[in-house]
Design brief:
Distance between the termini: 71 Å
Number of helices: 3
Structural class: alpha+beta
Largest sheet: 10 strands, antiparallel
Helix content: 10-25%
Strand order of the largest sheet: 5-4-3-2-1-10-9-8-7-6
Number of strands: 10
Shape: globular
Length: 185
């Protein structure tokens, strides 16, 4: 039995609506990126330790470098196996190579951009009122990006003198400890 043109049209509309909802859902979960290009120095090589309640700690290595107008983010496990490879260009993320998309890594990468953005540039990059910074009595510094009225990321530098060593806590309670990768063992 052949489908009527009316039923084909209804099926087409349903598929189009489902595709639109999937696209919007993907955008809603995308981490915020600055409204303009990042001005921090590159390349950077980092040791990243991820901790989450009820899960074992994960050690990874992250390399961030500039490639023309884009930023390349490459995350590896300690054996050198790629865990995530992303390019950020014109405020948009795209997969780099054949490594499967890793939304948690992309969130980490976006949080690092926020952490590395100089405080004087945060209003222009993320919008006035969307972030706040405060100094702690113990000499630590803290910065928070808010999204929909809630903290998206909280960045904490235990000592202002060691600006390259800090932690990032996301809205789901995942903690990333960031430190420069040493050149020598």
């Amino acid at each position: 039995m052949a489908a009527s043109p009316r039923s084909l049209l209804a099926i087409g509309r349903a598929l189009a609506a489902a595709a639109l909802l999937a696209l919007l859902a993907g955008c809603a979960g995308a981490p915020p990126v600055p409204g303009r290009d990042a001005t921090f120095s590159l390349p950077r090589r980092l040791h990243v330790e991820q901790a989450a309640a009820g899960q074992p700690s994960l050690d990874t290595l992250l390399v961030v470098q500039r490639e023309g107008p884009a930023l390349r983010w490459s995350l590896f496990d300690p054996m050198g196996v790629p865990q995530a490879r992303q390019m950020l260009q014109d405020g948009r993320w795209r997969n780099d190579g054949f490594v499967r998309p890793n939304s948690q890594a992309r969130d980490l990468f976006a949080a690092l951009i926020f952490a590395w953005t100089p405080e004087a540039e945060l209003d222009a990059a993320y919008g006035a009122g969307n972030w706040r910074a405060r100094a702690q009595e113990d000499g630590a510094a803290e910065r928070e990006l808010r999204q929909h009225g809630r903290p998206r990321w909280t960045v904490r530098w235990p000592q202002a003198a060691q600006a390259d060593t800090f932690t990032v806590v996301d809205a789901d309670g995942i903690t990333w400890r960031i430190s420069p990768l040493k050149e020598q063992p």
